[in-house]
Amino acid sequence: MQEPKPTTFGFQEVSPAEKTRLVNDVFHRVARRYDLMNDVMSGGIHRFWKNQLIHTMRPSAQTHLLDVAGGTGDIAFRFLQACTQSHVTVCDMNPGMIEVGRDRALDRGIVKNLEWVCGDASVLPFTASSFDLYSIAFGLRNVTFREEALREAFRVLKSGGKFFCLEFSKVHVPGLKELYHFYNFSLIPRFGAWIGQDRDAYQYLVESIAQFPDQQQLAVEIRQAGFEAVQVQSLSGGIVAIHQGIKR
Ligand SMILES: C[S@@+](CC[C@H](N)C(=O)[O-])C[C@H]1O[C@@H](n2cnc3c(N)ncnc32)[C@H](O)[C@@H]1O
User: Fold this and answer.
1) At residue 2, does pLDDT exceed 80?
2) In the list 42, 140, 162, 187, which could disulfide-bond 46, CB 3.0-4.6 Å?
3) What would the pLDDT profile of 201-213 be if each residue is shown by its tens digit?
4) Residue 1 — very low, low, confident or very high, per pLDDT cuts 50/70/90?
5) What percent of the chain has pLDDT over 70?
6) What are the DSSP calls for 136-195, one per residue?
7) Mean pLDDT computed over every residue of the chain
8) Residue 58 Cα, ligand 1 centroid: separation in angstroms?
9) Does residue 125 contact residue 119 with C-beta atoms inside 8 Å?
10) Confidence at residue 51, expressed as pLDDT on a 0 to 100 scale
């Protein structure tokens, strides 16, 4: 039998099975501190990026959103708060992240129209043409089989359904690029060690950002999965980007 093609976990070359195991291990370790660390690392800017994603998705009544790699629920909560008549299914492969998400939902009193499913983005446990919208925020970078995950997004969306991805991307502003590189590689792993008590998890974070395709390349991959009218919106000088596409 042929060996599976190697992939990357940060800057390390690993087998696909090893990547999935290592990513799961990272999120299992950081789950309880994940939300605090997001605020610390981004100075709270991740809230603005996520709000911008919700704004771009335009939540409306009777819309069913599938939020893949939904983790501790940030996108689901914002979506349901923007439109209480909508419905969200969060799917994530890590039971630890889902457990934190369920606790946060209870703390916020969000129980209606929300469900949590443990599953892999590249083999989604849903029938074809089930959802109006699909989102994946800071998740695609961690997925072992990106091509398959994009094809799965296409499969589970209804015809006319929309795909959205919020992810770290490539900074295109001179000056900011160098500053961002310094911040990522010199400071984030240190904050990760002091506050997150897990330097390796945050070293993986910055390496995975560096390895991820830029705005144009990701748009090509989304088109290859079958999506049309693919658009890209860079935020904060390209630190992150929102990609969207339609299944016709
Ligand atoms: C950085 S967190 C993002 C969580 C949330 N979307 C947010 O924006 O705060 C990445 C999430 O992707 C999940 N993940 C990684 N690989 C996955 C896969 N193949 N399928 C489903 N979830 C995956 C992890 O378990 C983790 O919860």
Assistant:
1) no
2) 42
3) 999 999 999 999 9
4) low
5) 100
6) EES-GGG-S-HHHHHHHHHHHEEEEEEEEEEEE----STTHHHHHHHIIIIIHHHHHHHT
7) 96
8) 22
9) yes
10) 98
Exposure string (b/e) for 14-40, b if CB count within 10 Å is 16 or more? beeebbbebbbebbebbbebbbebbeb
Whole-number Å distance, alpha carbon 27 to ligand 1 midpoint, is 8
Euclidean distance between CA atoms 128 and 110, whole angstroms: 27
Which residue ranges make up each domain of the chain? 7-246
Which residues' Cβ are closer than 6 Å to ligand 1?
23, 27, 68-71, 74-75, 92-94, 97, 120-122, 137-139, 142-144
**Ligand 1 geometric centre to CA of 181 (Å):** 23
Helices (H) and strands (E) in the chain, counts: 10, 9
Residue nearest to atom 10 of ligand 1 (CA): 139
- Both tokens of 229, joined, read 């009218």
pLDDT value of residue 134? 99
Q: What token pair was written down for 235?
A: 């935020």
Q: Residue 1 C-alpha to ligand 1 middle, in angstroms?
A: 31
Closest CA to 177 of 226, 210, 224: 210
Distance between CA atoms of residues 107 and 114, nearest Å = 14
Mutate to test the pocket of ligand 1, among 30, 66, 78, 93 (most ligand atoms within 8 A of CB): 93
- The amino acid sitting at 26 is V
Architecture of the domain defined by 7-246: 3-Layer(aba) Sandwich (3.40)
